[in-house]
Write a structure and sequence with these properties.
The protein folds into two domains: 7-42 and 282-378, Aspartate Aminotransferase, domain 1; 45-280, Aspartate Aminotransferase, domain 2. Helix content is 41%, strand content 12%. It is built from 13 helices and twelve strands. The chain has helices spanning 7-10, 16-25, 44-55, 68-78, 96-108, 124-131, 150-156, 179-191, 248-261, 267-279, 281-304, 327-338, 364-380; strands spanning 31-32, 91-94, 114-119, 135-140, 163-167, 195-199, 224-229, 242-245, 317-318, 340-341, 343-344, 356-359. Strands 2-8-7-6-5-3-4 form a seven-stranded mixed beta sheet, sandwiched between helices. The protein is globular. The N and C termini lie far apart (46 Å).
Amino acid sequence: MTIEPSERVDRVGPSGIRRFFELAEEVDDLISLGVGEPDFSAPWTARQAAIDSLERGKTSYTANRGKRELRAAIAADLARYDLTYDPDDEIVVTTGVSEALDLAHRALVDPGDTVAVVDPSYVSYVANATFVGADVLRVPTRDDEFVLTRSSLEAAGAADADVLLMGYPNNPTGATMTRDQLEPVAAFAREHDLTVFSDEIYAELTYGHDHVSIAALPGMRERTIVLNGFSKAFAMTGLRLGYAVGPPAAIDAMNRIHQYTMLSAPTTAQYAAIEALDSCADAVTEMRDQYDRRRRVVLSRFDEMNIDCFRSSGAFYAFPESPWDDCEAFAEALIEAEQVAMVPGTAFGPGGTDNLRVSYATDMESLREALDRVERFVEAFPTE
Ligand code: PLP
């Protein structure tokens, strides 16, 4: 007998990013501009708090929703985005934003509902919606500098959707949305009674301007679940900690699944996160400044190569156009010839077909070397 995957799983193919990493793994002297995680370690005081908690024997489960002290610290931290949430019934601490995304879908989306997903976007969005049996409606953004607009929502038919799933600052494009750009999207959501899942995991990583949360716009709090976490800003990907905030009934529904399936998020990571929110603002600023310096180098180097590159203003991604028509062929040939890995834009949906995702979560020296190699490759092979 063979154990067959469920239909849900069969409907979702393997991640386009994973496949690429497997290819890259076989190459020596590789410089990867492919990974979507910080090249820094978590700030030392946060690590120390984790170590200290272990030394004190803090190895039990926490409350299902997370330690009260952490929820209070999250609530206080969100004030900087004009967001106010009650630590007792409007916050659930999760095992990364990944679990928060999963919970939002399982708790708040029914089979047959429609989830409108910004395109291109993070690979897990479509997978999460598909796993719960929802219909996915992609909302193209490539003709609008990768931001959502009322007209693209209308043209895609999002008026009939149940949920709008968006992520700004955006992975893979590095696009951010201003208050002026968010307002018509919020109005559209209110008019058509959409629930919004807003993945704001890169909120702290914006360059030259502050992040604006769609939940802070009038009439949006009651219809929005904001997802955020510690992986990106605090370089804590491996500690697996995130959270969701939203109206009490929605968070209660998410927590109902969480309490049966996860019980509580990792305890050690929760201690690290409390310390991160308490004392690591300077470390975040330092990392952000470094990302910004790298971003400027990447954008100007692509300009010099005459490669059209979207002016990203958030996260740690640049999204240049692929010099070849086939971005997958380009990315594969670049790995083989110059040992530089980028992710083909096709991994992020049809809207990424003409692009490559370049992560600058890589030290400056490697980044410069990788860009030299890209330049050499593009001069040698301008077309396929
Ligand atoms: N959301 C986005 C947009 C991401 O890019 C990622 C990771 O790359 C995640 C969520 C997952 O984050 P976490 O490590 O908190 O599970």
